Amino acid sequence: MIKKLLLAGAVGAIFVFGNSNAQENQAASTLANQSGCLNCHKADQKLIGPSYQSVAERYKDQSNAPSILTQKVKNGGVGVWGRIPMPPHPQLSDENVTILVAWVLRGAPTN
Question: What is the residue-averaged pLDDT of the chain?
Answer without folding.
Answer: 86
